[in-house]
Amino acid sequence: MSKSTFSVLGADLKVKGDIDASADLHIDGRVEGDVACVSLVQGESGEIVGGVRAESARLAGTVRGTISVRDLVVLKSARIHGDVHYDALTIEQGAQVDGRFSPRTANADDATVVSLAAS
After folding, report:
1. Which 3 state secondary structure label does DSSP give 35?
2. Do 105 and 88 touch, CB atoms closer than 8 A?
3. Hey, what's the torsion of the CAs at 92, 24, 16, 9, to 10 degrees?
4. Would you say the C-alpha torsion 119, 91, 115, 31 has a positive or negative sign?
5. Rounded to a whole number, what is the distance in angstroms from the first to the last CA of the chain?
6. What is the helix (H) or strand (E) element at residue 42, kind and residue range?
7. How many CA atoms lie within 13 A of 105 on its CB side?
8. Mean pLDDT value of segment 67-81
9. pTM of this structure
């Protein structure tokens, strides 16, 4: 059995392809592909062009794709372009989200269309 690890993709890295991490992941660089991990922390300079699947995520950069996370925190510097599926959700004032929010257990018909922008 492997111990929990923490992987970092620095701001100078650009990855093309899917990432499937069995532990925690910190992304400051650009990923063109889907990201799946236990816990995701995205820095302000981070950009993900693809889907995100995780138990928990703290997003501060840009995501262009569908997000499915149990416990999601969207920080004020975040820019989300895509649908968001969650169990618990926190959004800081100033975050920009252009997409559909829905609890992961809800039907698609119950989704709420939201477009938030900093004031």
Report:
1. strand
2. no
3. 80
4. positive
5. 48
6. strand 35-42
7. 3
8. 97
9. 0.85
Local structure of residue 92 (DSSP, 8 states): -
**From residue 59, how far is each of 4, 27, 49, 67, 72 by CA, in Å?**
21, 10, 13, 11, 8
State CA 98 to chain mean position distance: 13
Rounded to 5°, angle at Cα 60 from 72 and 35:
65
CA 96, CA 119: separation in Å to the nearest integer?
Answer: 10
Positive or negative CA dihedral for 4, 73, 96, 64? positive
Segment 3-57, tens digit of pLDDT: 568 899 999 999 999 999 988 999 999 999 999 999 999 999 999 999 999 999 9
Token pair 């499915």 in the structure block, residue: 68
The number of beta carbons lying within 10 Å of the beta carbon of residue 29 is: 19
